[in-house]
Amino acid sequence: MMFAPGRTVLYRNVDGPRLASVRPCRVISDDERGLLLWLARGSAVVVEVAIDGRGIRDMPFEEWIGLSYRVVPATWQGPSLLKFIPRDADHSVWFFRDDEDRFKNWYVNLEERALRWDDGHLAGVDVIDQDLDIVVRPDRTWEWKDEDEFAERLAFPAHYWVHDEAAVRAEGLRVIKLIEAGEFPFDGSWTDFRADPSWPVPAVVPEGWDRPPVPRA
Questions:
Q1: Full-prediction pTM beyond 0.85?
Q2: CA–CA separation, 41 vs 91, rounded Å?
């Protein structure tokens, strides 16, 4: 399944049976290396919150798992960024920009690999965010991110969607070898990317965004 450049593709985070977030992105390229997406600042998104309106990071995980949830419309407040999803890998690499639209840093989002879907009028990728991440500076020095959050949630295995801590860390260490060696995609590819200013910023999340997550084997 390949996605044509320019097509809108939904990047969906799935927590077990639920959708945790939905972000409409523009396909930049899709080839043997993987899928490259553009998420524009100000894009309409959908996020999961507790019934009282708080997000998962607004409270201890122990409290979060005892609540009911709903999904609400929101706006992507972060910077515009590229998301690269390699084929057959349990991570994506995000290229963050600053307010002057210059490359700022890479961000390795460890996630259970993307499963693609295409309903004809709408397509997307479903991932399971594994929470532990790696921040990579332009000089390729790096550091783990959200280690405390990862450890906190692992203490609740009956409720947490990550079931193999060792596998997550092993994937991170595999990517770190690429980082330190300056290998693709940490070789300068796409750091000079500039979005076409004529590209529209999604004002709404397209209808069909809430289709059931792709089943995992």
A1: yes
A2: 22
209: in domain: no
Half-sphere exposure of 148 (CA within 13 A, CB side): 2
Amino acid at 106: W
Residue 194 lies in a domain: no
Neighbouring C-beta atoms of residue 216, cutoff 10 Å = 10
- CATH code at position 161: 2.40.380.10
Is 51 a domain residue?
yes
Residue 125 contacts by C-beta under 8 Å, 6 or more apart in sequence? 9, 10, 11, 12, 35, 85, 114, 115, 116, 117
ω into residue 86 within 30 of 0, thus cis?
no
β-bridge pairing 69-75 and 44-50:
antiparallel
Quote the DSSP letter at residue 6.
Answer: T
pLDDT for 14-71, tens place per residue? 987 899 999 999 999 999 999 999 999 999 999 999 999 999 999 999 999 999 999 9
Give the C-alpha separation, 182 to 139, whole Å: 9
Q: How many domains does the chain have?
A: 1
Tell me the β-bridge partners of 71. 48
Residues 6+ apart with CB under 8 A from 186: 93, 106, 136, 140, 178, 179
Q: Which domain holds residue 79?
A: 8-181
